[in-house]
Structures are given as C-alpha cells and as structure tokens.
Amino acid sequence: MGLKKHVPNLITSLNLLSGSIAVIFAVQGNLVLAAIFVAAGIFFDFFDGLAARALDVKSEVGLQMDSLADVVTSGVVPGIVMYQLIIKALPSSGSLSTDWNSSEFDLNLQPFALIGLLIIVASAYRLAKFNVDDRQTDSFIGLPTPANALLILSLPLILNYESVPMIHQLILNEWFLVGLTILSCILLNAELPLFALKFSDWGFKENKLRYFFIISCLLLIVFLKFIAIPVIILLYVLLSVISNRKATA
C-alpha cells in the first residue's frame, strides 16, 4: 500500500490547515478571507473522500480525522463569523457600513452575539452523529456541515461584493441573524433526508435530480453570483423534500 494510504489524510490535513487559517481571519474580523479559506477547506474535504475511495484506502482514522477537520472548517469558523456578524448588526456597534476585509481584534465580549456560537455546537453534534449513523452512506440526514458553512460564509461575501441595499439591511439585522443561527442548528440535526452528489454511474435516469441540481447551481451562480449560495442551499433542501415525498407517495 505504501505511501498511497497517506494521501487522503494529507488532503484532510489541508482541510484542517485551511480551517485553522480561516479561524484566525474570522477572529480578526476579516470575514472575506475567512470565507475564502473555508471554501478551500471544503474543496479539500470533497477530495479526501474521493481519494480514499479511488485508492481503496478508507480507514477509521481517516474517517475520524475528516470529522475533526470539518468541526474546525465547517463548524468553528461559521460560528465565529456569525458571532462577528451579530456584533456588527447590533445597534450599539454604530454604522452598518463595515469593512469586511479589516483585521481588527475586538476584545469586548458581546453576550448577545454568543448565540452565533451555537452553530459550532450543532455542527459538532451533527458530525458526531454522522460517524455512527449507517443510514448516511449514500445520502444525508440533516444538512451537511459544509453546506451550512457555505450558507453562513456567503453572508460576508454578499455584503462585500454585492451592492443590493435591501439584502444588506436584511443580513445586518440582528434578529435575522439570530433566526438564521437557530434555523441552521435545526437543519444540521433534523431527521431530514437529503440527497448526496455521489454518482454510482453516470446514467441520466438514475441521476436526473443530481444533474438538474448541478445545472441549476451553475445558472444561479452565473446570474446571481454570491447571492446564489443561499439560494442554492434552499434549492437543495427543497429538492430533497420534494424527492422524498415522491418516493413515499
């Protein structure tokens, strides 16, 4: 087996490293760079499992390491980002015109904003359940942590790159952010079957839902750019619900 057995774990390590760097930027308040490194971590997260299957070197250590890396990249970082967003949304923080590329430490703990850290707890619990749930080999039960991370990290990207005042006002409303935090925690651990983008073959009939979703994602990204990310997550959940109802009808 030689060195190839270490390839998936090396890729997982890159996920963990990306997430750790993202933590630093998130704590500093540079939410855009935090989002970029989370995206890099999720990229590595996708390919570590792919590499393990391709090389036939799946291991229990790799599974546990993958979840530990995901706790950081897709759990800790989104929680800190939500904490930072809630702080900026609070009336006491002053102006809503925020530089999302800044790197300033704020040592003043905001108790209300700590609600955002619930995402970390919910993500860790979601990942722990995933490791012991044999129902999630070909699909998911509850929103995957990388999808939830993309949802949360899309917010500073939208604020920084999309000039839509109405959306900015919505995102920088503290009660919207609290509601989104609670919703994400629920979706992460809900008994909600969601399809996975895993292809056993490339046939259209067996994978038409996946193909439709992928094409829809590409079109949404082209037309909506960063605003497409939360729309895609919503579409993913809705398509899964519709598919589940058809399957049980």
Please provide a written account of the structure.
There is one protein chain. The chain has 249 residues and is mainly α. The protein has a single domain (2-193), classed as Four Helix Bundle (Hemerythrin (Met), subunit A) (Up-down Bundle). It has 9 helices and 2 strands, in the order ααααβαααβαα. A two-stranded antiparallel sheet has the order 1-2.
Summarize the structure.
The protein has 249 residues and is mainly alpha-helical. Helices cover 70% and strands 2% of the residues.
State the main characteristics.
249 residues; mainly alpha; Four Helix Bundle (Hemerythrin (Met), subunit A); two-stranded antiparallel ribbon; 9 helices
Named CATH architecture: Up-down Bundle
> How far is the first residue's CA from the last residue's CA?
47 Å
Question: Compute the gyration radius: what is it?
Answer: 18 Å
Count up the domains: 1
Could you tell me the CATH topology label: Four Helix Bundle (Hemerythrin (Met), subunit A)
Biggest β-sheet: count, sense, barrel? 2 strands, antiparallel
- The number of helical runs is 9
Structural class estimated from helices and strands: mainly alpha
Strands, count:
2
Shape: globular
CATH class: Mainly Alpha
Instruction: Detail the poorly predicted runs.
Output: none
The side-by-side strand order for the widest beta sheet comes to: 1-2
Helical content stands at 55-70%
Mean pLDDT: 89
